[in-house]
Amino acid sequence: MSEPGGADPLRDLGERLDRARRAQQVGGESERDQGLPQGGLAFALRVGVELVAALAVGLAIGWGVDRWLGTRPWGLVVFFFLGAAAGMLNVYRAVQSSGMMGAGGETAHKPHGDRTNEDED
Amino acid sequence: MAANKTSPLEQFTIHRIVPIHIGRLDASFTNSALLMCIVVGLVVAFMALSMRGARLVPSRWQSMAELSYEFIANMVRDNAGAAGARYFPFVFTLFMFILFSNLVGLFPFSYTVTSQFIVTAGLAVTVFIGVTIIAFARHGFHFFTFFFPEGAPVIMAPLLVPIEIISYLSRPFSLAIRLFANMMAGHIMLAVFAGFVVSLGLFGVLPILFDSVLIGFEVFIGILQAYVFAILACLYLNDALYMH
Q1: pLDDT bracket for residue B244 (50, 70, 90)
Q2: Are residues A20 and A48 in the same domain?
Q3: What is the spatial distance between Cα B68 and Cα B101, in angstroms, rounded to a whole number?
Q4: A44 and A13 in one domain?
Q5: ipTM of predicted assembly, 2 dp
Q6: DSSP annotation of A71
Q7: Interface probe with A: pick from B174, B177, B227, most Cβ of A within 10 Å
Q8: How far, in Å, are A25, A74, B121 from residue A51 at the CA level?
Q9: Chain A 29-88, CB below 8 Å of chain B: which residues?
Q10: Domain count along chain A
Q11: B94, B87, B96, B123: which is closest to B42 by C-alpha?
């Protein structure tokens, strides 16, 4: 006896769920385009860490090469510059993927390009 | 770390609770290990208890568990695509472990395991090795083209390839340093301001006020850093799955 009354609210609920899900999808898209949604300070910290980490790895490799081949100090010198370059590359990529470079730089980033054709089923 | 009781660094000391020595290896059960066990237990308890008797209209605890699940599920789908969904359990575990470590560490007399570099480095290296293995398994030796940017002149290879390799190797470092530095800096700041309370006498109210604001900020940082760690793991996964 409650069946006609019961089916309608359920369908209504289903429609509302669909609508909410679509709205969420759209919201997620626009938020994603801005990359990591964080404050400026957190982003600055992230970029700083990227720069220093690559430099540290470069120095560690240089030190290891020197120890291994006995070429002190040339390995350290060469890998210091390579590490610095890698750090700048990291920073460049981090800024690029964050969308902080404006419209021009964003299309060049590969995860974005991949995402648009790979995901979305 | 040799620090006396009043040092702000005292909170990071590791002490053995149950000394275990296997040969020359010191495998003692420390306060850090104890807290990690507590964190794992809490995560399991949170997920299991809040999903017990799951209903269509969720209770408060259930909706918290579902919220965290959906949050990570969306993140993995958005950042690593459909193929990345297979690795959702790993990312979710990673996120929950870091989140609970950060939050549990804020309780008095507790210990922040993520302020220990070896812990964050362990997590980051796990992600790094896993992602590299996935990339190899999916792309084979095509993986090495990752280290040479498309369209660059071949004559530049001796310069570009080492730079790209260093950039790739720096990933676990930046992951580990970011989490560890954020947690450690926050806790040192709390301890330094708490140290002012006694010496300032009546004006010690001010550092207490500041510390209570800072605790709120630390909760935010703890959640944010867990999120950042997980999303970067997803981005690295994305790189491994869909190489150019």
Answers
A1: low
A2: no
A3: 15
A4: no
A5: 0.78
A6: -
A7: B174
A8: 34, 22, 17
A9: 32, 36, 38, 42, 45-46, 49-50, 52-54, 56-58, 61, 79, 82-83, 85-87
A10: 2
A11: B96
pLDDT(B19) > 90: no
Q: Is the pLDDT of residue B144 over 70?
A: yes
Number of H helices, E strands in chain A: 5, 0
Cα Rg of chain B, angstroms: 22
Residues A44 and A1 in one domain: no
Q: Are A86 and B235 in contact (CB < 8 Å)?
A: no
Domain that holds residue A23: 1-32
Do A24 and A49 fall within a single domain?
A: no
Q: Tell me the whole-structure pTM to 2 decimals.
A: 0.80
The verdict on A22 and A46 lying in the same domain is no
Position B37 confidence tier, pLDDT thresholds 50, 70, 90: very high
Digit-coded pLDDT (tens) for A82-107:
999 999 999 998 888 776 665 444 44
A42 and A15, same structural domain? Answer: no
Domain ranges of chain B: 10-241
CA dihedral over B24, B25, B26, B29, signed as positive or negative: negative
Assigned token pair, A120:
């979305």
Clarify whether residues A44 and A98 are in a common domain: yes
